[in-house]
Amino acid sequence: xxxxxxxxxVHGGTSGIGKELVLTLVSKKANVVFTGTNKQKGKEVxxxxxxxxxxxxxHHAHFYNMDITxxxxxxxxxxxxxxxxxxxxxxxxxxxxxxxxxxxxMDDLEERxxxxxxxxxxxxxxxxxxxxxxxxxxxxxxxxxPGCIINTSSVFGLAPGPTQPLYAASKHAIIGLTKxxxxxxxSTNIRVNVIAPHxxxxxxxxxxxxxxxxxxxxxxxxxxxxAFLYVIADESLNGRSVEPRFYDPVVxxxxxxxxxxxxxxxxxxxxxxx
Length: 274
Hints:
Blueprint: E1 7-11, H1 16-27, E2 31-36, H2 39-52, E3 61-65, H3 71-84, E4 92-95, H4 120-143, E5 147-152, H5 165-184, E6 190-195, H6 210-216, H7 221-233, H8 249-257, H9 259-273
């Protein structure tokens, strides 16, 4: 897929991987709307783009301030994008937004208060990502157009995270979500894939952990962004993560056994959106 003039939504584009992704997409002349909860950070990314392209060309990027956990805000961004890019439709939705553990076993309250919402990690990393996937799929079905959805997991979506168990749980779930939607929608022109980066030096990695992480080797931000671009470009990819889709014959057999049921569910969904 050529990114020139495509419309891309990036959830979580004000720092780290998301910010670098926004800058890269704009450099390839895509029309980008990126979200974030921090207005100042969003403004700084826009100012950076203004300076980079001053006197050269319009950069065609917009910041949308929102809380990704808010369903209504996620709905509203679709109207915002179609208003700022009149006559165009959304082509790609990328979900990068994520946080580390918001609580631990010694400080464990379900309700909000004091230090915030203690299960906020699951709300941001998983529940909000599920909302973003569902709204994107619904949008592409309603518009009867191809769509590319890219989720962001982590190496901790493939391995245990003993010091950040909620983060690891959410990232494991994102891979399961991607494989499931990718499998369900494989016969359509909607692709759902996931990037699971190894350690990337971003603000999400605590300073005290940098030395330990470097022992394992770190992935450059450039390599990480290239993985996103690869998934966008290769239209044969669907329901894939960094690991093979079927790495276990039992899983392959289960998918085969569910084929008829999967087709029935998909047909019901397609009929609903016709």
